[in-house]
Amino acid sequence: MTEKNHKGRLFIVTAPSGAGKTSLIKALVELCPQFKISTSHTTRKPRQGEKEGVDYYFVDNDTFDNLKKSGEFLENAECHGAKYGTAMTPVEESIKAGKDIILEIDYQGAINVKKVFADAISLFIIPPTIDDLKKRLEGRGQNSEAEIKGRLLAAEEEISHLEKFDYVIINEKFDQALCDLKSVFNDSPESINLETSKQKRIFQSLIDSIK
Fold this sequence. Notes:
It is a single chain. The chain is an alpha/beta fold. The chain has a single domain (10-210), classed as Rossmann fold, CATH 3.40.50.300. Helices cover 44% and strands 20% of the residues. The protein contains 8 helices and 9 strands. A 5-stranded parallel β-sheet has the order 2-7-1-8-9, sandwiched between helices. The chain has a 4-stranded mixed β-sheet with strand order 4-3-6-5.
């Protein structure tokens, strides 16, 4: 999608905290550098290893609010006590230039972006079980017990909206999930099996465990 007169594609990737979204996207971009990740603004503090302008633009609340008031954001949301926003201009410029771009955002932001870019391709990454998600959050060692509880409750709410997305990828085994992600981005024939309507039988048990 880089030929002249071809628009780039916009991919929206959403997942509960701890489902492995960021690791999968980074691995995908290493394999397929033609895909670019949109850099969001956030008011949260950088985690170990994160770089300014690469992982996020780390800003204070006042700066974020000023950007929001001036209409700079395509979408913005508050999640786990921090604000996140995607700037409109870089996304539009990438698409016009024929470059494929990835938005790594929460489900609320994804739904808002689809209102602006109806042809955006949306993917939802989920863990095989809620217990598995809990173990992953505990294993990261970045959150307190109370924070983990809050993230699990948020995950349940987020997963209840996954049928609004075009594709569902179950991150049980990282290599397989990466292969699935790659097939969607490359529009491979096997990606049809990852369409939400075809995955429902598989992920229904996860939804049932939440109810």
